[in-house]
Design brief:
The complex is a heterodimer of chains A (752) and B (378).
Chain A (H helix, E strand, L loop, with lengths): L2 H29 L1 H12 E6 L6 E2 L5 E13 L1 H4 L3 E5 L5 E4 L27 E4 L5 H7 L5 H26 L5 H13 L5 H6 L2 H4 L3 H16 L3 E2 L2 E3 L5 E3 L5 H8 L9 E10 L7 H4 L2 E2 L4 H11 L10 E2 L2 H5 L1 H4 L4 E7 L5 E8 L7 E3 L3 H15 L12 E7 L5 E7 L8 H24 L30 H10 L8 E3 L17 E3 L1 H7 L2 H8 L5 H14 L24 H7 L9 H13 L2 E3 L4 E4 L2 E2 L4 E3 L4 H16 L16 E10 L27 E10 L6 E10 L4 H17 L2
Parallel strand pairs in A: 2-15
Antiparallel strand pairs in A: 1-13, 2-3, 3-7, 3-10, 4-5, 4-6, 8-9, 11-12, 13-14, 15-21, 16-17, 16-26, 18-19, 20-23, 21-22, 24-25, 25-26
Chain B lengths: L2 H7 L3 H20 L7 H21 L2 H6 L1 H18 L9 E3 L2 E3 L1 H17 L12 H16 L3 H17 L4 H20 L6 H12 L5 H10 L1 H13 L10 H5 L11 H34 L3 H25 L17 H19 L13
Antiparallel strand pairs in B: 1-2
The chains are: A alpha+beta (752), B mainly alpha (378).
């Protein structure tokens, strides 16, 4: 082949290859154009959730108990803070901000005055304005001097760190979050905080020579982060204290709204929706709270990823009480918005493609005025003895429609303000749940027949629906039904000589009542009668079956199925031994909640139908049906128990308590209970239990739970069942201290 | 021959076309680097001026003398490649050597040096017409190939292969010998690719990602997207260009190519295609074809073998870079680090391109010497 021909072949081969590429490009541009447009659009758009308004919770009278409301909070815009240097145009007075070089990665350059104003003025006619002192704004917010600037600088450093981390991850092709994970690892290894720069330096070889790409990403990320307004709610004062400001005061809001000269550049106001509980601590455990996190793990993961000081997300999930129980109804349906990039690469163009649907409302049977009355009575009665001598006084009470199970009033103490610091409330819930789970685990680990673990005074756990404690003598009506139901007649002339400390030193106290029968035994709450009868040698085997069966029939040891989140189950031995029968007959070694007790009393009141407690009457416009299960009760047995409970009020342990003018015409059936708390060691040999009526006269060794349970009726009015418990007091008895709370509650109910 | 005579006889169409391509490159780089703190277009302009000056300097020297220095240049080039293995800097590959405030890429300079070396080896020899005679040129090519692969810089290393083949073909090597060589090379490359450590993970991923792009399976697409993100973004930017380019109402070419990584360097063609559309791309291809044609016409006018081989080798160098770069941006070839001559940002690449233009001007400006063979027996 001639050399010229070889050259021609080379050229033609090259042109052919070029033509192939040209055809490929032509195909992409002429036939693949629409696909490319679609692909690019997909890349430049994101779908985001649009939060739906949360439904309201209202009481039976229509009073709002939980509602979404608009509030104003402080937000921080890094890009604005980075350009705090301002110049005023001498011609038109316009304020022109300039970037602070230290936030643009430059340390030597000073801010430069603008070269031109939008009015056309240029040159030297720009007056530099001083960087404003933030003290007026800090005063209005309620922050110590220097807090705001410190918080802003901290946030800027975080943002710049985050930008550099994202750039490094992008350039090195590492998945997002890799470097944060590495930072945590290094921190764990060194036991001290590790700067982001140190972690990025570890990628050195992968980043070298990719300056253009890095700069490219840096520009994008900076535009993204600098333009993003983030809530600023947590502050560290110069003294190191941590403060939270959820909503701005009107004064602070006014200062920022009127800041035309941009003195406070970097800070803005933002309207947001927050869950508001107008009754604050009243019903806090019952109504519940919303939290940004579904679980403790989710919360930890969030703070691990973004740091402890990161503002909380706006997502709200019911974490407690009715907010959690009706989460699916209240939360509504989130909408979808399409976010598109603007010219600066920011996802600022927002189009709602699917409108959110507000959550449904929940109407309760509860009456807030009754709850308030009960709450005041409980607070007064609970005193400040604390829970087992520690913490706040603790008590709970409930009023229930005896026919339907509708919960009419609930109150408890102590309480907490669900409008408080969201992360603190969430944290408290998490801690309390962990404590409760641990207690349950310990309880399950203990063998049957051993005294159950005493409850912990966790504030977010409902004293009515969650916290289960020993009922003491309040359990005797059901013990009587178990005994009578087993065909064992309770002696009609049982001679009670009181507790024989020599024979049974650890048996709870019992007055020497003399001759008693079932009715007077219930009325005077004779421990010996019920303990001896339950452990009667002839009926011991029958009772070992009858007691758990009767307890289960009344729902003890089982969840009631109430429409409430995290209900307590209580505990009841399945196969009690003889010594245990003596205890459970008088309400020891078993655990119940006031909700369970009120429900069981409702069954006694209505003649044998165990209702499922219902807090909500209407959910999202639909009435909530009532449910009940029958309980087999012998008429004679029921009659004796009713007479005993009536006797308790008329001549027994609660005599005189209900003889009040405001309860005229009201017939009250009740039973008091003074229960030994937790593992008071009446079961084992190392007892430190001291007879409250002992020779030394001391009653300081308690403590005891004070109960009063039962029902009340009045012609023309609904019959209501009730249960009140004052936890872990070191003085008093149920008939004297818990019964007056019930009297107040009944007076409020029947005279409403 | 005086400098004025050289200037008068030089084939000026070459530098004119190269200057036009450089201007297009600078304008496209300016678009690609919109918003960047570093003034890449200005830096490229400075390198273009340096390259032009260097081209004039080379033009002043008779190319025969350059060819006679071939062994020295070759050894210096290899020494630089060895040095870069120990002192090199750069991302996952250490390809650059710092000289003062500048960084140069020795492998870029090795391309014309290899052309000069092969031209010097083949010019008065007929050994390469025997199969055994191919050993020497192949060995001369293989040494820098392996050193550059070691950096690792697969793209530049691959360029040595078409340069050597084109030179051997242009120098009259038998086609069947070249076919044997090509087959052996392909088999050896395939085997070596399977040996762990020969190819870096990212190089292997790019190749398999490229192969996967033609699969229909969802997984294949996902693999292709993850491994060939740059290529995928490049194809989108090209497609967005349409017939006449992305209009300002659609965000302009800056917006269209925003997501293309390294769009100022190896993927600058994607920015050009987005900016000017198919019409602009067609003009660019015509420009490149004309440039390559002008380049080869220098070779066709010469009978002096060293000048002729220099022209053929440099033609192969430019042609391979153009085809590989544009082909990889268009998604026809796997992504390897090969710049588009005059278009891509990069001082070393632009300087070497202009030095090569200078060398070609020198070749074209020398009077023809008639002592070469007129035909080769196939």
């Amino acid at each position: 082949m001639r050399p010229e021909r070889r050259l021609l072949v080379l050229y033609l081969a090259t042109v052919a290859a070029l033509a192939a590429v040209w055809l490929r490009v032509g195909f992409l541009q002429l036939f693949g154009h629409q696909q490319a447009v679609e692909d690019a659009r997909t890349q430049r758009e994101r779908l985001a959730d649009v939060a739906a308004g949360r439904g309201r919770i209202v009481d039976a009278t229509g009073e709002t108990l939980a509602v979404d409301r608009a509030a104003v909070r402080l937000v921080f815009v890094p890009g604005e803070w980075a350009s705090r240097h301002r110049y005023r145009c001498g011609a038109c007075g316009t304020i022109i901000p300039r970037r602070d070089p230290r936030w643009a990665g430059q340390t030597t350059k000073a801010p430069t005055p603008p070269s031109r104003c939008s009015c056309g003025a240029k040159g030297q006619g720009f007056e530099p304005l001083p960087v404003e002192d933030l003290a007026p704004l800090e005063d209005a917010i309620g922050l110590p001097a220097g807090t705001l600037a410190g918080a802003a600088d901290d946030r800027m450093r975080d943002v710049l760190d985050q930008i550099e981390i994202e750039v490094a991850e992008g350039v090195a092709g590492r998945p997002p979050g890799t470097l944060r994970a590495l930072q945590r690892l290094r921190r764990a290894e060194r036991g001290a905080p590790v700067p982001a720069a140190d972690v990025i330096a570890e990628l050195g070889p992968e980043l070298e020579g990719r300056d253009f790409y890095a700069e490219d990403l840096r520009v994008q990320r900076r535009a993204d982060h600098f333009g993003r307004a983030t809530a600023m709610m947590t502050f560290h004062t110069p003294t190191g204290a941590r403060l939270e400001v959820r909503a701005l005061s009107p004064e602070a809001e006014r200062i920022l709204e009127l800041d035309r000269d941009q003195r406070y550049r970097g800070f803005r106001t933002e309207t947001f929706t927050e869950r508001w509980y107008p009754r604050h601590g009243l019903l806090a455990q019952c109504i519940g709270v919303v939290s940004p996190f579904r679980s403790h793990e989710e919360r930890l993961a969030y703070f691990k990823r973004f740091g402890r000081d990161m503002h909380l997300p706006d997502v709200r999930v019911g974490r407690l009480g009715l907010e959690a129980a009706y989460e699916s109804v209240l939360r509504g349906t989130p909408g979808r918005a399409r976010l598109a990039r603007d010219e600066d690469g920011l996802f600022s163009r927002r189009t709602v493609v699917d409108a959110p649907r507000r959550g449904g409302d929940v109407t309760l049977h509860l009456r807030t005025d009754l709850c308030e009355a009960l709450h005041h009575s409980l607070r007064a009665a609970a005193t400040q003895e604390g829970f087992a001598g520690e913490g706040d006084a603790s008590a709970g009470g409930i009023l229930m429609d005896a026919e339907t199970g509708a919960v009419l009033a609930v109150a408890e103490a102590p309480s907490f303000d669900p409008n408080g610091r969201l992360d603190e409330v969430t944290s408290r819930i998490d801690d309390d749940e962990a404590v409760a789970a641990e207690a349950v685990a310990r309880r399950e680990a203990r063998g049957e027949g051993e005294p159950p673990e005493p409850p912990k005074p966790a504030v977010t756990l409902s004293r009515v629906t969650r916290l289960d404690v020993e009922p003491g003598s309040a359990m005797k009506p059901f013990s009587a039904l178990a005994i009578l139901g087993a065909g064992h007649p309770i002696p009609t002339h049982y001679a009670c000589a009181g507790r024989d400390a020599r024979v049974e030193p650890r048996f709870p106290r019992c007055h020497p009542h003399g001759p008693v029968d079932c009715v007077s035994g219930l009325a005077h709450s004779c421990n010996r009668l019920f303990a001896d009868t339950a452990s009667d040698r002839a009926y011991r085997a029958v009772h070992a079956v009858a007691f758990p069966t009767t307890a289960a029939a009344f729902g003890f040891g089982l969840r009631t199925g109430a429409d409430v989140f995290g209900e307590g189950r209580g505990a009841y031995p399945a196969t009690p031994s003889a010594p245990l029968l003596r205890q459970i007959a008088i309400g020891q070694a078993v655990l119940v909640t006031p909700l369970q007790m009120a429900r069981a009393c409702a069954a006694l009141a209505n003649g044998g139908r165990l209702p499922t407690p219902r807090f909500a009457s209407i959910v999202d416009g639909e009435p909530v049906p009532f449910e009940a299960v029958p309980v087999e009760l012998g008429a004679a047995a029921l009659e004796q128990v009713r007479a005993g409970m009536r006797g308790c009020v008329t001549f027994g342990t609660a005599r005189g308590v209900f003889d009040r003018p405001d309860l005229a015409g009201v017939t009250v059936f009740g039973k008091s209970g003074t229960a030994t708390v937790g593992a008071r060691d009446w079961m084992d040999g190392d007892s430190d239990w001291v007879d409250p009526d002992g020779a030394d006269g001391s009653r300081a060794k308690g403590p005891w739970h004070l109960w009063f349970v039962g029902w009340a009726s009045k012609p023309g009015a609904r019959t209501v069942a009730f249960a009140v418990v004052l936890h872990s007091r070191r003085s008093g008895v149920g008939g004297e201290h818990a019964a007056p709370v019930v009297a107040d509650l009944l007076a409020a109910w029947f005279n409403r | 021959m005086t400098l004025s005579e050289r200037l008068r006889r030089a084939p000026w169409s070459l530098p004119v076309l190269a200057a036009a391509l450089t201007a297009v490159g600078i304008a496209t780089i300016a678009t690609a680097a919109e918003g960047h703190r570093v003034p890449y277009a200005w830096l490229q302009t400075r390198w273009a001026a340096v390259g032009l000056a260097a081209a004039l300097l080379v033009l002043a020297a008779p190319y025969g003398r350059v060819v006679s220095w071939a062994p020295v240049l070759y050894v210096l080039g290899l020494a630089a490649l060895v040095l870069v293995l120990f002192k090199g800097t750069g991302q996952s590959a250490g390809r650059w050597i710092g000289i003062g405030s500048f960084r140069v890429q020795p492998s870029e300079f090795m391309k014309p040096i290899l052309v000069v070396m092969l031209a010097a080896t083949l010019r008065y020899s007929s050994e390469h017409r025997r199969l055994g005679g191919l050993v020497k040129p192949v060995a001369l090519t293989l040494v820098p190939f392996l050193l550059v692969m070691r950096q690792p810089d697969l793209g530049t290393a691959i360029l040595f292969v078409p340069i050597a083949f084109a030179l051997l073909f242009g120098a009259g090597a038998r086609l069947r010998h070249l076919a044997v060589l090509a087959t052996g090379g392909l088999v050896a490359a395939a085997l070596l690719a399977l040996v762990p450590g020969v190819l870096k993970d990212y190089q292997r991923d790019r190749i398999f990602g490229f192969l996967a792009q033609h699969g229909d399976a969802k997984e294949a697409k996902a693999l292709e997207r993850s491994q060939n993100h740059q290529s995928y973004q490049g194809r989108i930017a090209i497609g967005l260009g349409g017939v006449t380019g992305v209009g300002d109402d659609e965000g302009g070419p800056e917006e269209a190519s925003r997501d293309v990584p390294e769009r100022h360097s190896d993927f600058v063609f994607a920015v050009f295609a987005a900016k000017h559309g198919f019409l602009g791309v067609t003009l660019l291809f015509v420009l490149y074809a004309a440039f390559l044609g002008a380049l080869l016409s220098v070779a066709s006018r010469l009978r002096e073998p060293s000048g002729r081989f220099l022209a053929v080798g440099l033609f192969a160098m430019f042609a391979a870079q153009i085809v590989i770069n544009l082909g990889m941006v268009a998604g026809l070839l796997p992504v390897v680090g090969v710049p588009a001559p005059f278009l891509t940002y990069g001082g070393s690449s632009l300087l070497v391109s202009w030095l090569s233009i200078g060398l070609l001007l020198a070749v074209g400006s020398d009077p023809p010497v008639e002592f070469g063979r007129t035909t080769y027996a196939d």
